[in-house]
């Protein structure tokens, strides 16, 4: 860890400034990382960049993300190629008769994909693009609805990859005895205020109770008046999404979409919430069925699997660049620095809201959700014990902060993947979603203050 005071925030600030000016996340992340590496290594920053890149690319968690996202792209490619996605959309259109019902159907489908936020972001966005296009809903608004049921739903429903991960950390930090981690996690769910607020805001936005705000208003106006659901700057993303075309000679079957999704959720839950194992089982079973039933040849099937993986190259590039920045920020000590700023003013009543605000800021700035939780939980646990604060409430605040970072940061994994699946850029998605994320954050702050003092 490098002690450079407030300068630890410089790399992330560089990223934000460049991203706003250029709307190019990969370049902004790399430049910000290089600034941080110069602070750490001085003139040897090039060697430092090489070492950091290797450390990131050989990290087990990063490898998991690359494989999960790549092969999820392969599964989506198979569903598109066989006409399964189109068939699902056609079936849904029988029950969806308006813009409001299209948005609500997207919200409900997202809730059913609770097992993992990556599954939610990629599957729901891909499945609902054509249906929401029919009602002139901008891709940015589709992305907002999808993302609001990604991490927030995976946090609220404990039988998910988020629940398993955080339950393990709760035990590892001595907050709960062995075997009681998930039970403690469940007890904190009512206090995960940001996740609840983000999820419940969607129906209000979908029905018009909360109007289109800021950049979202401009996006919806473009879609409604010009018929341009895909934003102009997202042409490369839309081209990637359209790179796999449905074969006209295959009879579309809605079960070919529904069954793989059910198998994916069931297999993930059965194999200790390991989403990668679930994808391998689902993709392998789908390929065997397609080849065995002669729906497609072996060559066509595996070419589609490869093309689907290729479809995810751009978002994976953003994610790897974000992981490099997160590694640099870990070395600089961004998270402990921000916590240290909050410590002098902390009381048992103020701890939950202080944790939410400070950790939401850290998670937002670094784009790291699970990583920040790993670093901060020991500090949060010590603060809670020293101040005699309610640890369940503090856990809820900490997980709310992680959810905010996943939901709001333009280079967080969920934001990047949701943007790709929905058909807009990460910056377009983040900027249009941000006002609603701030509303949910404000509700959370008020809620934590009320819980502490009432």
As a whole number of angstroms, the C-alpha radius of gyration is: 22 Å
Helix and strand pattern: HHHHHHHHHHHHHHHHHHHHHHHH
Q: Which regions are unreliable across 5 or more consecutive residues at pLDDT < 50?
A: none
Number of helices: 24
Instruction: Please give the number of β-strands.
Output: 0
Biggest sheet descriptor: none
Instruction: Give the averaged pLDDT, no decimals.
Output: 88
Estimated share of beta-strand residues: under 5%
Task: Tell me briefly what this model is.
The chain is mainly alpha-helical. It contains 24 helices and no strands.
Describe the structure.
This protein is an all-alpha fold and 454 residues long. Helix content is 75%, strand content 0%. The chain has helices at residues 10-22, 25-41, 45-57, 60-81, 84-93, 99-112, 117-134, 139-147, 151-156, 161-172, 181-188, 193-206, 215-226, 235-241, 255-270, 275-292, 298-310, 313-332, 334-342, 351-366, 370-387, 391-408, 413-422, 426-453. The longest helix has 28 residues, at 426-453. The model has no long low-confidence stretch (mean pLDDT 88).
């Amino acid at each position: 860890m490098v002690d450079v005071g407030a300068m630890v925030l410089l790399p992330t600030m560089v990223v934000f400034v460049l991203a706003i000016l250029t709307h190019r996340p990969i370049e902004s992340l790399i430049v910000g990382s290089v600034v941080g590496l110069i602070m750490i290594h001085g003139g040897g920053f090039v060697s430092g960049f090489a070492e950091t890149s290797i450390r990131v690319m050989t990290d087990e968690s990063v490898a998991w993300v690359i494989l999960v996202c790549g092969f999820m792209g392969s599964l989506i490619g198979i569903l598109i190629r066989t006409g399964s996605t189109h068939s699902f959309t056609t079936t849904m259109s029988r029950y969806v008769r308006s813009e409001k019902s299209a948005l609500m159907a997207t919200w409900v489908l997202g809730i059913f994909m609770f097992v993992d936020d990556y599954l939610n972001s990629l599957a729901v966005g891909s499945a609902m693009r054509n249906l929401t296009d029919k009602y002139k809903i901008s891709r940015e608004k589709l992305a907002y609805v999808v993302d609001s049921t990604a991490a927030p739903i995976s946090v609220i429903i404990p039988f998910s990859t988020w629940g398993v991960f955080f339950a393990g950390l709760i035990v590892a930090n001595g907050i709960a005895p062995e075997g009681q981690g998930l039970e403690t996690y469940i007890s904190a769910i009512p206090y995960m205020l940001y996740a609840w607020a983000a999820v419940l805001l969607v129906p209000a936005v979908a029905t018009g109770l909360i109007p289109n705000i800021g950049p979202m208003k401009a996006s919806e106006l473009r879609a409604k008046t010009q018929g341009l659901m895909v934003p102009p700057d997202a042409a490369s993303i839309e081209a990637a999404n359209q790179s796999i075309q449905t074969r006209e000679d295959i009879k579309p079957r809605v079960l070919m979409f529904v069954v793989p999704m059910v198998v994916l959720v069931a297999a993930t839950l059965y194999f200790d919430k390991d989403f990668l194992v679930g994808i391998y089982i689902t993709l392998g079973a789908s390929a065997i069925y397609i080849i065995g039933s002669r729906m497609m040849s072996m060559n066509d099937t595996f070419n589609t699997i490869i093309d689907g993986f290729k479809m995810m190259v751009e978002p994976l590039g953003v994610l790897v660049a974000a992981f490099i920045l997160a590694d640099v920020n870990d070395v600089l000590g961004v998270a402990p620095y921000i916590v240290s700023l909050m410590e002098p003013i902390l009381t048992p009543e103020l701890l939950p809201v202080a944790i939410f605000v400070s950790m939401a800021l850290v998670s937002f700035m670094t784009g790291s959700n699970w990583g920040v939780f790993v670093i901060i939980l020991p500090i949060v646990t010590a603060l809670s014990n020293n101040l005699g604060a309610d640890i369940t409430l503090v856990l809820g605040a900490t997980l709310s902060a992680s959810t905010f970072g996943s939901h709001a940061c333009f280079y967080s994994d969920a934001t990047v993947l949701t943007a790709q699946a929905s058909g807009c850029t990460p910056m377009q998605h983040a900027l249009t979603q941000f006002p609603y994320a701030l509303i949910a954050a404000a509700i959370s702050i008020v809620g934590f203050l009320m819980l502490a003092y009432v």
